[in-house]
């Protein structure tokens, strides 16, 4: 009886567990707490956090249970991450939810979304300096775009062994937008600048809204063909939304389809963070670089808005530059809140959505450029 009990105990997770599993389980619980109690990107952090719990249950190798074992169910689901299937589906849903009216009403704000992508390329150079291979550095740099699906898509193509830390870093900083961005925004702007009011945007016709996804897709993908899977789905989703006659498809894309893709991506990315795979020196470097990248992207957008004001008669509120990172719609919401702290009657949200959605396009183009450079 004692022998049977000992054999049973040696097959349990309590016996097989080591400190790295415990650390990642605690991190997973923190993610779940932040998602539920603090409402920080709950649709992302809760699946990823629970996935961390799933991935760090100690098991015997060879039973076909672990996410890295070829015959396991988790491995089949993880195929959508490693082959870049889930991110384009999420982009399809984002396109079906996005209104490009404010961007079309004042196209100059698109430059703020482009400026914020500076964090991607500066971090790319920083990763190279820290000894990462060029393809790994390119994948790490994309964290600065603050776009989880884009980061996962590019990493799957260039450095699949880094999907876990890069995905967790990207989504962590997306969730922490309300914490990270405000101090940078306040430090780089004066109260007078934060009080600048934006004029009401012009009316955008339905024809313009329908033409935009077609023309922008052609222009962007001729510029960066490697961005085709992401931008193609983003623009297609937006066309479904604006065409009206395809509203049924648009509703599916922005509800059921994006929810399913988000659940599968979140749980499998979380499960890929097994302690023995995730807790490495490279992961620590990636998190540090990711934080710097996000800070640089925010600062670049704000500073470029201040630079633009040197030449514009109708000044831009520099806070809008922080919305250039593609954490939709959180960074736009943070800009709006920061503006209202100075003047409760100043509504910046609809204006901030212009650089915000252009940041989504910009991060996808940047990913395509980096991918093509690594080929």
Automatic annotation (TrEMBL):
Keywords in alphabetical order: Cell membrane, Ion transport, Membrane, Sodium, Sodium transport, Translocase, Transmembrane, Transmembrane helix, Transport
**Any single GO BP term:** sodium ion transport
The highest taxon in the source lineage is Bacteria
One GO MF term on file is: lyase activity
Keyword Ribosomal protein (UniProt): no
Membrane topology per record: Multi-pass membrane protein
Q: Please provide one cellular component term from the Gene Ontology annotations of this protein.
A: plasma membrane
Which spans are transmembrane here? 21-37, 43-64, 76-96, 108-130, 137-156, 162-189, 210-231, 251-272, 284-305, 348-373
Question: Could you tell me where this protein is found in the cell?
Answer: Cell membrane
- Provide the protein name: Sodium ion-translocating decarboxylase, beta subunit
């Amino acid at each position: 009886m004692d022998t049977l009990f000992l054999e049973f105990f040696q097959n349990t997770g309590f016996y097989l567990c080591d400190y790295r599993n415990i650390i990642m389980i605690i991190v997973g619980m923190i993610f779940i707490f932040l998602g539920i109690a603090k409402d920080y990107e709950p649709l992302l952090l809760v699946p990823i956090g629970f996935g961390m719990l799933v991935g760090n249950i100690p098991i015997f190798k060879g039973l076909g249970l672990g996410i890295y074992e070829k015959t396991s169910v988790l491995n089949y689901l993880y195929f959508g991450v490693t082959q870049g299937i889930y991110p384009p589906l999420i982009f399809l849903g984002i396109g079906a939810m996005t209104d490009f009216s404010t961007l079309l009403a004042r196209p100059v704000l698109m430059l703020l979304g482009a400026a914020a992508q500076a964090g991607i390329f500066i971090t790319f150079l920083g990763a190279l300096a820290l000894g990462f291979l060029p393809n790994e550095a390119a994948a790490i740099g994309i964290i600065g775009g603050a776009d989880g699906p884009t980061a996962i898509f590019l990493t799957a193509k260039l450095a699949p062994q880094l999907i876990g830390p890069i995905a967790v870093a990207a989504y962590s900083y997306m969730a922490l937008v309300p914490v990270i961005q405000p101090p940078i925004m306040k430090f780089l702007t004066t109260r007078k600048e934060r009080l600048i009011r934006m004029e009401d945007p012009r009316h955008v016709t339905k024809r313009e809204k329908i033409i935009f996804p077609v023309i922008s897709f052609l222009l962007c993908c001729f510029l960066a063909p490697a961005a085709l899977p992401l931008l193609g789905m983003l623009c297609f989703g937006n066309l479904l939304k604006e065409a009206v006659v395809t509203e049924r498809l648009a509703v599916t894309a922005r509800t059921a389809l994006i929810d399913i893709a988000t659940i599968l991506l979140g749980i499998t990315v979380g499960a890929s963070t097994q302690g023995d795979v995730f807790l490495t020196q490279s992961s620590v470097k990636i998190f540090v670089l990711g934080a710097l990248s996000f800070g640089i992207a925010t600062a670049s957008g704000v500073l470029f808005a201040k630079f633009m004001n040197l030449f514009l008669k109708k000044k831009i509120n520099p806070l809008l530059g922080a919305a250039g990172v593609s954490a939709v719609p959180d960074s736009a919401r943070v800009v709006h809140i920061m503006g209202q702290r100075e003047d409760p009657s100043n509504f910046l949200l609809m204006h901030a959505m212009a650089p915000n959605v252009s940041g989504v396009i910009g991060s996808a183009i940047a990913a395509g450029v980096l991918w093509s450079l690594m080929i």
